[in-house]
Design goal:
homodimer, 234 residues, alpha/beta, 38% helix
Chain lengths: 234, 234
């Protein structure tokens, strides 16, 4: 990635934040792009900005709130409650937002062409595959195939965590000095993480596997509860 | 297409308007979607709404003005003058908007999934292939491949004009009763068509081939000038 010019699709969650730090560490020239698509947990965008500020990366937040009504049939954007439990449970399909990664990746692709960048980076990882079709290998291949033909310029899809677990990405992030207080995952987007939705559960288990505590839980008893709950879901 | 549920990607130009009428004629259940991406000729959206009103088709205009700054390096969206001449001229590459058809198609794909529709319809045609990569067969194939994997639901890409000339689409539109006063093509988006940009030239030649006059030209001398100019470009 050294000397590559990369648009990092940054949610503000722990995986794409680690990717941002990782790209910086590898010497890439980076710009970051985030999306407000009406997600309940849009506070993640605040953390995305914070990390970009810290790393001096130019950050664009694209207001896609005009499409929220078109993707309302998801627990992340509509009137459906965010389900509790493990990421791989059937109920987690309610958290799929139709074509979300395609929409974000393709706007990033247009942006890359507009400013002469070569790559877009996505932080999809192995733990996403079970529930999110747009995080699987076949998706990444189809996306690259589209990127090869939809413009004169061919933009590369860079997804280095594709086959890595969330725990291993966290390990890498901790090595790179990511401050996980400045990342947000919980789909409910309230003041504190709920500790029970799919992404809270997954996040907690990743910290447990690294023998670390998630700094988003300020009170030890909240953290213990989250750990207990997450372990029950495994 | 009978009984199919189709989202028609509608620019307000002559091809997608004919497609809208065509889908109606074929008995499809239709919704239409248009995009404001900061195009200079956004008056096309007014005509899109007008035809939807006439055909009683629900019409959504998606405000993508937030991405205009990300796709500014095009004569259609940025500070570059709209080039004059024939569609197939090298200079027309300035009118390419990066990833435009991908962005529109993928948002339409998400919308289709959200409301249980089966198809998205695109009015790309044979005359577009020379200059626009995202109108070619390889693009449509890659798009369908992406649609097959990026969600649980597989949405079909319907592009019936893919191999048909603009003149033949116009012929079909005239048969279907399209009122071409209610369509807009000119990239300059001023009060009257300029008669010299690529899409004006192409439009004029399509009318000439059908032995018809473009009703957007109210004064015969304007029409004669446009015809003369277009024929010189052939």
């Amino acid at each position: 990635m050294k000397d590559s010019k990369v648009i990092c699709v940054l949610s503000g969650g722990m995986d794409s934040t680690a990717l941002l730090y990782d790209l910086k560490d590898r010497g890439a020239e980076i710009k970051a792009i985030s999306f407000d698509y009406g997600q309940k947990h849009k506070k993640e965008l605040h953390y995305a900005s914070k990390n970009c500020g810290k790393l001096k990366v130019e950050h664009t937040i694209v207001d896609l709130s005009a499409i929220t009504q078109l993707i309302s049939n998801s627990a992340l954007t509509g009137d459906i409650d965010v389900p509790e439990g493990h990421y791989e449970d059937e109920s987690m399909k309610q958290t799929v937002v139709p074509s979300r990664n395609s929409i974000m990746a393709i706007i990033a692709n247009a942006y890359a062409i507009n400013i002469g960048y070569s790559d877009i980076a996505l932080a999809v990882h192995a733990g996403d595959h079970a529930i999110y079709p747009d995080c699987r290998e076949e998706f990444l291949i189809a996306l690259q195939d589209l990127f090869n033909v939809n413009n004169y310029e061919k933009i590369n899809v860079y997804a280095p965590y594709f086959d890595i677990s969330k725990a291993d990405i966290l390990k890498r992030g901790l090595e790179l000095g990511v401050d996980y207080r400045n990342t947000w995952s919980c789909y409910n987007g309230e003041e504190k993480p709920c500790g029970k939705c799919g992404t809270c559960t997954e996040r907690t288990l990743a910290f447990v596997e690294n023998n670390a505590q998630d700094p988003l839980y300020e009170h030890p008893e909240d953290w213990f509860k989250a750990v207990e709950y997450a372990k029950e879901q495994e």
